[in-house]
Amino acid sequence: MTTLQQLDGTYVIDPVHSQLGFVARHAMVTKVRGTFSEFEGTATTGPDLQGARIELTAQVASVDTRNADRDGHLKTGDFFEAEKFPTLTFRSTSVEAADADTLRVTGDLTIKDVTKPVTIDFEFNGVATDPYGNQRIGFEGSTTIVRSDFGISFNAALETGGVLVSDKIQLELEVSAIKQA
């Protein structure tokens, strides 16, 4: 069985088999989920995670919440301001094994030209060789951010109290990455 410390090399995220998503509370009573359908990323590491670094870029205009009107609103200045800030990025500053099955990644998340540090614990799902001979690794992770920290503060008060959109947003990542030759 491959351990986190044995994952040396360069890996490219397979966007067809990965997901970069988010969850927000809507009207204080339900959750709305969304994804970015266009993204790319790489992870590079030496033995024992030496020199490990991870980079991810998502195209903001690819936001998809399964509702065209909401997606259009998310692209405006009320939220992501996609024309002015077309990408969101993550660049690791620290990668370490928290335990045998958990990769703790700390880095800089940039949304709307605002950069804040975040830490994401990724559960290591293992290594597999696909039918095409590619070595794949899998990870799942999540973290919570405060969207107003990134200049995304649009909201509307509800007559029953509370607000239309939660300030806390759950980021969810499911990653399948392919080792490069």
TrEMBL record:
Residues 10-178 form the Lipid/polyisoprenoid-binding YceI-like domain. Gene3D superfamilies: Lipid/polyisoprenoid-binding, YceI-like (2.40.128.110). It holds the Pfam family YceI. SMART domains: YceI. InterPro entries: Lipid/polyisoprenoid-bd_YceI, TTHA0802/YceI-like_sf. Belongs to the UPF0312 family. This is Polyisoprenoid-binding protein.
